[in-house]
Structures are given as C-alpha cells and as structure tokens.
Amino acid sequence: MDLDLQNYSVRTDLAIESREMAGRGQQQPIPGVQEDVEEQDGIRITRLNVMDEAGAQQIGRVQGNYVTLEIPKLREGDSGLQDRVSYIFAKEMEDFIRKIGVSPNAKVLVVGLGNWNVTPDSLGPLVVENLMITRQYFELMPDQVNPGYREVSAIAPGVLGTTGIESSEIVQSIAEKTRPELIIAIDALASRSLERINTTIQVADIGIHPGSGIGNKRRGITKEILGIPCIAIGVPTVCYASTIVNDSLEMMKSHLGKDTAQREAIMGMLNSISEQERLQLVKEVLQPLGHDLIVTPKEVDKFIEDIANIIATGLNAALHEAVTPDNVAAYTH
Amino acid sequence: MDLDLQNYSVRTDLAIESREMAGRGQQQPIPGVQEDVEEQDGIRITRLNVMDEAGAQQIGRVQGNYVTLEIPKLREGDSGLQDRVSYIFAKEMEDFIRKIGVSPNAKVLVVGLGNWNVTPDSLGPLVVENLMITRQYFELMPDQVNPGYREVSAIAPGVLGTTGIESSEIVQSIAEKTRPELIIAIDALASRSLERINTTIQVADIGIHPGSGIGNKRRGITKEILGIPCIAIGVPTVCYASTIVNDSLEMMKSHLGKDTAQREAIMGMLNSISEQERLQLVKEVLQPLGHDLIVTPKEVDKFIEDIANIIATGLNAALHEAVTPDNVAAYTH
Amino acid sequence: MDLDLQNYSVRTDLAIESREMAGRGQQQPIPGVQEDVEEQDGIRITRLNVMDEAGAQQIGRVQGNYVTLEIPKLREGDSGLQDRVSYIFAKEMEDFIRKIGVSPNAKVLVVGLGNWNVTPDSLGPLVVENLMITRQYFELMPDQVNPGYREVSAIAPGVLGTTGIESSEIVQSIAEKTRPELIIAIDALASRSLERINTTIQVADIGIHPGSGIGNKRRGITKEILGIPCIAIGVPTVCYASTIVNDSLEMMKSHLGKDTAQREAIMGMLNSISEQERLQLVKEVLQPLGHDLIVTPKEVDKFIEDIANIIATGLNAALHEAVTPDNVAAYTH
Amino acid sequence: MDLDLQNYSVRTDLAIESREMAGRGQQQPIPGVQEDVEEQDGIRITRLNVMDEAGAQQIGRVQGNYVTLEIPKLREGDSGLQDRVSYIFAKEMEDFIRKIGVSPNAKVLVVGLGNWNVTPDSLGPLVVENLMITRQYFELMPDQVNPGYREVSAIAPGVLGTTGIESSEIVQSIAEKTRPELIIAIDALASRSLERINTTIQVADIGIHPGSGIGNKRRGITKEILGIPCIAIGVPTVCYASTIVNDSLEMMKSHLGKDTAQREAIMGMLNSISEQERLQLVKEVLQPLGHDLIVTPKEVDKFIEDIANIIATGLNAALHEAVTPDNVAAYTH
Asked: Could you tell me the pTM of the whole model?
C-alpha cells in the first residue's frame, strides 16, 4: 500500500474516480480519452484509454490503458458472483495483455506488494501465494513442461518498514536477474470513497509510481525504468477518515436535491466551497487531534481473502492457456 | 461485538461518552453520579459511580460502577507505555473487584466474547487464550495448588452467526454447571469517536446487555440473570462511518470557534440542529447507498494484539495474588 | 485431541486398526462383527458393525457402527480427489444418520473438539467455522426458513488447558439448554500408523469416551450420558514417535519375507516378541530421554485445512437436503 | 528448509552431530578441529573450528567456525530459560561476528529462508518480521540516525515452489544492489535426532550450500559467490521418520547395555551392521509405502514462535550496540 501521508490531496489511485472528478458528474467525452463502459450481471466494466498529454491533463492521470471492474455487491459474500467476477477478470486480463502488445508466451513476474501482517495491506502477498508458478520447471526441465503453460514467477518483496529496502529496488534487482518480459504488480490502494473499498479492481499499464514523498531514491516499477511492460492491479482496501467525511458532505448535497437555496440553508458554505477547500477544512478539523486515521471495513479479513482469491484465480486462467474457467479451481489453492 | 444495526441511536457503549454528552461539555457534577478523575503518565483514569435512578436517567447509563482508562497514545506502539497501562489496569481491576464486594478467593469465569476470525472482534478470544487458567488443578488435585492462585476458568463462546446459539445462553449453561462466583466478560465495542478506538478500556459491573433488536430471547450476562456479579471489560475497536461524519461535524463546530454567526455561515443548519437530528441526516445520506459501514483502523491486527496482551497480563496479575507485575510475563503468553 | 499419556497402550482410536490387530492379518470374519468393504476411485470404505459383546471383546472396540474412509493419496493435494471424498463422505454420513434411526429433521449440534492454536489439533474448530449454521433462524423466525434446511448449531468448546473446563462438561451444559436431537463431534486422533495420518476419516456412533486418566470427573459425550445419539468423526493427525518405531519394526518383518530364520538373524528377538512387548521396549528406550514425542507431518497446515474443508463440505450436504454436491461450494466457506 | 529428498544420506545439517559421528562416541580431539565446550544453566555451548582440509575430511564438514547452543529443556516453555538463551545467543553472535573479522559497523542483510505457510519452515520469515530494521533511515536521513545503531536490512525471499526463483538467486540480486558487508541467513533444518528438534541453534560462517540435487543452477549463499561473509543460523525443526527409527535402534543398543551377546540376541544383525547400512534398511522398509515422511512435533506452532523470538531478540541485541538485554523487549515485537 502506498500511502503518501505528506502529500495527500484529492488525488486518487483510481482512474474512474479521476474521470468522475474531471467530468464533474457530466459524462461528456473528454478529448484524448477513449472510454467504453459495459455492464453485465452486476459487474460494470470501464475501459479508459488516456491517449495523449491533453487527455492526461484533463483527467489527471498519466497516459495509458485502464480497465476497472466495479462490483457494488462484492462485499455481500455471494460465491456465485465471485466466480463470475473471476471469470470476467480473467477475460479482461487476457485482452489487456494482448492489447498492450505482450506476446502470449511472454515470461511473467508477478509482484505482490504489501505487508503480510497488516490485513488490509496483505492483498498482494495473498495473491502471490495462490498463483500457479512454473518458472522452476522451465528452468530445470524445459522439455517436460506441457503445452499451454507459460513461465510465471512471483515475489512478495515486503514493505520498506520491515525490509529496509524499497519494494521497487527489490523488484528491479530480481527482474535484472530473471529477465521477465512482463511484470504484473498487485497492490492495495486507498480510495476516495467508502463504497469502492473492496468492490473495485483496476488494471492499468502504467506501472507503480510510488509517491515522491520520501525522496527521489524511490523509483517505481515502470516500463521507463525496467524496459518491459508493467501492469498494475489495484484494489482499494482502505480510505482516510477525512475522505469519508468529505465524501459524505458531497453525498449530502445530492441528497438535499437541486434547490440551492435550501442546500445553502442546511449546509452553509459547505455547500458552495470547492471539494478541495472542503477537504482542506475537514483535514484541518481532524488532523490536529491525530484523527485522520486510515480505516478499513471491520470485515476486512474476509473481504481481502475473497478478492485475493478472485484475482489469483483470474490470473491463473489468464496467464496459462491450459487453465480454463472449468479447471481453474484445481490450480488455485 | 454487539452491533445492533436496527436500533442504533446516539447511544454509546462508553460511560465516559455518555457522561460527556450528559454534561454537554460542562464538567459540573451530576446529581446521583460520583466522579473521580486521575491522570498519570499519559493514562487518564475516570471512576464513575452511577448511584441512583436519577443519576442513571441523567447520564443515560444503568446504575453501577464504571472505570475507564484513556490512553490517547496507546496506538503508537510504545512498549513501555503498554507495560504501564497493564500495571495500572491490574491495580484498578483488583480495586474494582474488592469494591463490588467479591471475595479475594472467589472462583472466576472469564468470557471472551466475539469472533476469532474477524480481527476487530477477536479481542475477547485473544485475551482468553493468554490467561492463566487454574480451575482444572483445583478440580483434579486441590491439595497441590500453591497458595496465591485462585480458581479461574475461561470460555470463548463464539458468535451467533457461527454457533447458532446466543453467547449469553452458552455462558449461562456453563455458569450453571461450573458455579463461578464472578464472571468477567471481555468484548469489543463500537465507539462514538475515532480517537477512542483502541485507546480506551472500560470496566463496569453492569454485565453485558445485548440489544433487544432480535427478540426477547436474548438475555444478557448480568447479575439479575445469573445471581453473581458480572464485570464487563470493553474496548472500542470499531465505529460507524456515520459516527465519523457526525463526530467531525461536531469537531468542526469547535474548530470554527465561538462566533455563532460565522459557524452558521459556514455550516448552515448543521451548526444548529441537535446532534441527534444531525446524525439522523447523516445516516439518511449514507444508508440508502449501503454506506453506513462499520470501520476500524487499518493497523487493527497490531492494535488488537497489543490491547489483548495488556488485558490478559493485567487480569493474570489482578486475579492471582502470586502473579505480580515483576513475574507476570512468565505467566502470560 | 484426546491424548492420554499415562494410559497409553497398543489401543488405537481407529476401529479398522483394531480389526486388523484382531485379525492378525487374516481377513476371516469375526463373530459378532459385520463387515463390508467397498473401494472406488482410490477411496476405500469399510463399514463395521460391532453387534454384540462377543464381537466387541474380539475386536477390542465398544458395540456400535463404524464407517471408515481410507484415501491413501489424500496427502497429495489433488483437488479432484478431495471433491470425490467430500461427496462420498456426505453420502456415507446421510446413510449413517438414517441407519442409526435419527429422523431427517432432527436438530443437530456439531461439536468441534480441539485447540485452535495447535495446528494438528485444530481440525474440530476449523470444521465448525465452515459449517452452515441455521439454529438462529429457526429460533428467531421459524416461519421464514426455507424447506430443505434443518436446525444446526455448533460449538468449539476449547481444551481443558485453556478453559479449565472439560469439553464434555461444556457440551453437556449446552445440550441441556438447547436440546439437540443428535450430536456430531469432530476430533483429531492419534494413529498407530504414519500412513493413516491425514488420509483416514472414521465415523462412529459410539460418541467420545475420553480416557479415564485424570479422574472420574471426565464423562464423555455419549448417548448414555446425554440421552441422544452421539456420532464421532475422527481423523488421525498425529502419532507417537514410539508408534513410528514399532510400526517400522513390524513392517521390517514383512519386508524381510517369510523365512523366519532369516528374520530372526536380522532382527533377533525383535522378530519374535509380541507387538505389545516390543512397544514396551521401544517406549522404555525412548521415554527416559523424553523422546516419546507426538509428531505430525511437516505439511500439517495444508493437510488439516484440506480435511477440514472436506468434512465441512460433506456435513453441509449431509445435513441440509437443499444443499447438494453441485451447490455446496456456495454454502461452505 | 532445504530438503534434498533424492540425495539423502546420513549427512546431517548439524556440525555437532557430524562431530559425534566422527568421534563415534569417544570425545578424543580430532586433528585439525578445535573444540571448546561450555555449559551454563542448562545451556550447552559448543564452539568448533574446522581449521584445515584434514579436519574437514575427518568431521565431514566444510572448514569454518561453528557455534552450537543445545538447550534440552527449551521445549518446556519456560520463559526465564528463553530469556537466558536469548542473552547468551546475543553474546555468542557478537563474538562470532568479531571473530570472523567483520567490522562492528558493517552493513548487514538478514535473510529469512523458508515458507510462511508451512509452520516448521516458517522460522526464517518469522525472525525477519521481528527484527529492528534501520537501512531505510541510513538511506533517507543518515545524519539523524542515533549512534549505537548499524544499517540492517532484511528479506524473506520465499521458496522455489511459490516463487519459481531460487532463494539464493533472489538474495544475490538484492545483495548486488544493496551492497551489504555481511549476510546472516536463518533457516530451518532437518535433524538426525528427535531430541535436537527445536532445542538446538547452530551458527556457522560457511553460508548456505543447498543440495546439488536439482542441478548446478542452485548456487548457495556463500562468501565464495557473494564476496562477503555469510553466517548461517540453523535450527532443526523436522526430521525424517526413518531418522527416528534408526535413531531409536541406536538408542536401543545403548539401552541394552554392554553385553554384546545379549544385544545380538535381542536385536540380531540390527546390533552389528553399520549405522549407514541400518538406515538403508529402514529406508527400504519405509519408502516403498510412501512412509518416509518428514515429521515435526505436534506443538510446532508454539515451538517455532518461541525460537523465532529468541533469535530475533538476540540478533537485535547483537547487531545494535544501543540495544541491550535490558531494553531489547522495546525493540523486538
């Protein structure tokens, strides 16, 4: 989880949230941004392509491809829905990998970012633990690997506080040694919105850009640095207390309806100031008291386990042709 | 954890919060309520005695004794502070048990309420796991038990959703069979306030009164029902998202200062309506969207472990005369 | 796990092991014991009915019905095999419950014996955690329970060392209060044989008879005491080091073939003394040095998790008519 | 854990076991091997220096320094003893590091080998989790690091089966990038003897030499490869079933006393054949049936946690001058 406490702003880790903020609610096309939305069975798929610098400026995200799955009911624990999400996620991953020009047999290194011992930050390591790993067979007995499998390795590099080494340094070292042709990094994110927590999966080909908060030593896991495509899979698992408050004030405005005068009466200036200013105020209120905690739903253990399982299952099916939705359970723990 | 979703109101599980709300900020004495506050080394101890029905009405809590430890810096992970809290908690527990007239050798049944598998609700089971249990020695070889130990047994009864049986039914059955002379029940609570989460320990002799939300079959773990004193130890480990929002609006009022007109300008009616009405509004805003999540700090794994250790260590020292602050580590896992 | 260290003998917890020892290798029928063996797809099912006292004497087991599943390859982690075992276990449980005359809608209390925190002893609690529990719905809204479900409750009572209360006392208290019509207790066992560890499931209607080692206070979970049928599901998860040695010496005899003189030459008296005497010798050798450890395979975490899942899945399908092999995944975590 | 199933022989991972086997019970000095034994308070310290090739041949270990702590009662859970072991381990580590010529401020990389999810193999990752890590402070704000601390980083590289990458490849990559001056690797070992399991800690400056079983790609974590000293800390946490049997037969010989004729009568040729031949026989007996399991004591969860804590505490005190036995608890989780 990459929480940059010093530099927090309305910036969000989710492209669809940036898109909403850019659109300010109106869903007009943004120049330089291709957008495609599909909905099936309670799963909303948004594919964004931020094509040029103008689009990037407009939407506040770097150029690249973004696919987001939103599944508002994912926290309800319906195993049928989980299977469907896993299936669709696998399909989207396959398309995504093809679309960004990675060959079907490219060697993949999966990186599970985060901390085993902090439940809302354990998504990456949990996914890695459930992947079907094959690189050792390709290394030791390449002739005997069945067709339909590609070379997959994985690492859970830990976090700076427990290793003393930046995750990106560790990944770079290993990538230099093992020469994968694609990196897929999984990370837990902070969300702007309570409802997105543990209900949203974002895939992007922009890699991981850690905050610049603690100096330029931190370099990230990106194509620019490593020379190979880096796909980031992110799931919001936490949010700031200030985010909840600010988010609720925004929702209160909607709740109160279109009569501006009435809203003004009830909410005063909170109705009219910009979201940025309002968040500033909320943070001022909360921070001096040490209140701007990062929080997670109380059912976090179960939610993280479920999503880790969805992502591992989906990746196993997406990465190995021989693994299909019907037999994937046999490959995923 | 006893979360009564249907019947939620401004009601809080913490007596000091009720006292603050009753006092509306002014710390005048409340008739029928004795109060004693002490502060040492970053630990604030509040002893409340709600002596009569008038006091109970005024403060909104049933008659009884309440001791609260507030340790604002407990989440910072300072092991020296944790040791001090453990020591003071042991001393307060000893005094409390004596004060409510329980004999020094009374047989104790400790009840760890909550769910192993839901981290913010696992406090009770975790404490039980670290207690020094002696009943089996008293039963099987009473002559050989060293002086300085009393008969202690413990149970973690699980939660309704995984057992199908009310915790209080389980505790009643076992108490009828094993005939303890004192019950001490440990439970995770919901707080009105983010800052109280995992920084506050409340001890009360009023037992556990589960909400009446799901029918009169639920009876509670109380002296009235069991005929023996029931001490409840509670630690807030979660709060509602709506609580965070409402709490922040209250803090915003303080933050904006004493100029009512200015506050009114910024916050509109949110400044003037009652806390109860405001909460109602916040809940209206959040609930239709399924937003009124219960949240916990992201570091919940570590926080719960630390507090469980403090409480288990303190109970071991308080319940067995032979266990002292100096040797307690040898008894507590 | 019920390990009676004082009273250990060649006695085993598995009826098929008793049967083998009684038969001394020859599979002739034993008077008073009905036997039926079936094998399918790598799963061997043995149904024993010890019908009278003579049979019980002969085989060294109390009268009752015993069904054993032996799955030698269960430790290999094949999820297809696990699914088949789960399915067959469900079918056998249904037949077993019917056969012992329990009505299809009888209220069931499932008891998960053992200790959460000792992996090879955590089978019972793990199964309980994954059951579909319904009693609360029958209690609170009996009109709204769909057909096809029966009333199931469950408890993991802990172990004497951490509660100070015998598991059987806890179960008795709860059974008196909640009045189930059938008890199903799950327990980890000690095996005489390494190969049986985590590859064998035994179902018996004789309840749980804890050793008499620590006094007559320990009474067991049996029909005699509780007045209702008590089914015990047992899985060997550990064995004594002395068992391994003795077992190997027995295997060495077979390995060395039929030439007694040769066996005598190689193994000396170890070839000719009775198994009981030999075990006595092995224990003498190991015990003074504190060597008679109880051991478990190093992959115990995975093995226990897999078997707990098989049993929970099977029980969910066996106990609720509406749960079938096809939809059981949706009901079992 | 490095278990080389194909190539198993009487070879053991513990130098003191090699020494015993070389000495065949007689404790005469071995040329080329310096030996120093000390005993205090139930802790036996053996310091071996295998000085030349002749000594290495004789004892069957590579040249280097070996320190072994044997604490037969460590499994009894006495926290006072654990503290003493931790203290002595810290002192021995400090001496060892000095003795092999590493400067007091040398940058250290600690490597926790093994698998998080396999309890008897989780020692390395558990130790790493409890270390005091400082490299990030030296990197980001070198001026502000208090005196008395050195630069320590750590990594738990996972195991080949879950990463697809040899641990040694991962460590080499990271060492090349971060340039430590000393590597300390912690690993769980297989023992020749049940009594050594979880009661023995070995420190050696020979690094980690993984078996050559799966090809020459596996290179090890050694001074030859990395150009810096590599200390290995090993604890036996498992043994083979065949080891238990063979070990017991050896003990049976001692148990039966000095009368060879009597031993011969009871044990036949098992008394006279060489240990190597006997083990071969035992393995023949066990292996065809898939019996040569690797086992661990049933209390493995607790034993591993205790030893991990001892080692982490000891390393924190040994590596940072500012951390002393009195304040170490504040630094070790």
From this structure: 0.91
